[in-house]
């Protein structure tokens, strides 16, 4: 039975065996393949691939969740990959696969944001959606804007407009500073790295340190988000001023560690130490 990982493997092997570099055709194939398996052809409406340094966005990828416009910056991706090739112990075989696996992570991360958007603005009440909804800056701002529209008193309109404009500024600063703590970003990273690692698994050990390298990247994100005496979801939502609302969410007590990590929820000290230990071991192997 064909799976998304096996279909992505076919695309990658075609490029690697024919010595083809990462290009816009590869990125388009990956995007369309992921969307096909999600059975949601309307998830992405516009695909824009940037190839020059001066164009459009400084980010490697960005999705406008309202217009469903996905932008991939090939120039920035190549800059990012060159850093890893220079600073990590990756074999020629690893490097031949590196750009293709990395872009699977980048693209699926952004597509996950599109899926989050559909859930956040739906009527779903499960704990995962409730956490994403609470942590989503755009959703919170849309709620503030709605308060203005449904207010008739002139002074109340002025007050709520001021609150709305103030939150645009403060939320933007919080998001930029605490990006790695956001459950929305942690969930997207989890989805992206999961698909990247599962795709590497289909290569049947035809690599050296490739799997370990992407596992290290994932652990790097986690280790920067989990600080002593707190956890990412609580940190980020508290910064938004929504801690009380977070405490009302009914989170199951029997979640395993991977389920908790996928949204930046609380883990034990021993689980946190295990992450740091694995990260340190991988760094010793991989860092030049």
Number of domains: 1
Structural class given helices, strands, pairing? mainly alpha
Strand content: under 5%
What is the number of helices?
A: 13
**End-to-end Cα distance:** 40 Å
Mean pLDDT: 87
The stretches of 5 or more residues where confidence is low (pLDDT under 50) are none
- Sequence of secondary-structure elements: HHEEEHHHHHHHHHHH
The radius of gyration computed from the alpha-carbon positions, rounded to a whole number of angstroms, is 20 Å
- Tell me the overall shape: globular
Strand order of the largest sheet: 1-3-2
- The helix content, as a percent range, equals 55-70%
What does this structure look like?
The chain is mainly alpha-helical and 288 residues long. It has one domain (4-134, 173-286). It is built from 13 helices and three strands, in the order ααβββααααααααααα. The protein has helices at residues 4-17, 24-38, 74-87, 92-120, 127-135, 137-149, 154-177, 183-201, 210-225, 232-239, 243-247, 257-261, 269-286; strands at residues 46-50, 61-64, 69-73. A hairpin with a 4-residue loop joins strand 2 and strand 3 (69-73). Helix 1 (4-17) crosses helix 8, helix 2 (24-38) crosses helix 4 (92-120) and helix 9 (210-225) crosses helix 13 (269-286). The mean pLDDT is 87.
């Amino acid at each position: 039975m064909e799976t998304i990982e096996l279909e992505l493997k076919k695309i990658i092997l075609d490029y690697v065996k024919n010595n083809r570099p990462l290009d816009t055709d590869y990125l388009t194939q990956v995007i369309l393949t992921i969307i096909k398996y999600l059975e949601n052809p309307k998830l992405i409406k516009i695909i824009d691939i940037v190839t020059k340094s001066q164009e459009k966005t400084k980010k490697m990828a960005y999705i406008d969740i309202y217009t469903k416009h996905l932008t991939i910056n090939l120039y920035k991706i190549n800059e990012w990959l060159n850093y890893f090739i220079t600073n990590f112990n990756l074999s020629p075989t690893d490097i031949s696969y590196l750009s293709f696996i990395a872009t699977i992570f980048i693209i699926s991360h952004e597509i996950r944001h599109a899926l989050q958007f559909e859930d956040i603005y739906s009527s779903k009440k499960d704990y995962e959606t409730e956490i994403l909804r609470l942590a989503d800056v755009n959703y919170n701002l849309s709620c503030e804007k709605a308060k203005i529209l449904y207010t008739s008193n002139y002074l109340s309109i002025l007050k709520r407009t001021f609150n709305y404009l103030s939150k645009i500024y403060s939320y933007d600063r919080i998001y930029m500073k605490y990006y790695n703590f956001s459950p929305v970003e942690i969930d997207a990273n989890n989805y992206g790295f999961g698909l990247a690692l599962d795709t590497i698994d289909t290569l049947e050990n035809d690599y050296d340190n490739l799997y370990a390298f992407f596992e290290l990247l994932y652990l790097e994100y986690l280790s920067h988000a989990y600080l002593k005496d707190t956890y990412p979801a609580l940190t980020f939502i508290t910064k938004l001023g929504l801690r009380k609302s977070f405490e009302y969410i009914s989170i199951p007590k029997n979640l395993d560690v991977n389920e908790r990590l996928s949204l930046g929820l609380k883990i034990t000290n021993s689980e946190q130490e295990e992450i740091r230990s694995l990260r340190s071991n991988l760094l010793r192997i991989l860092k030049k």
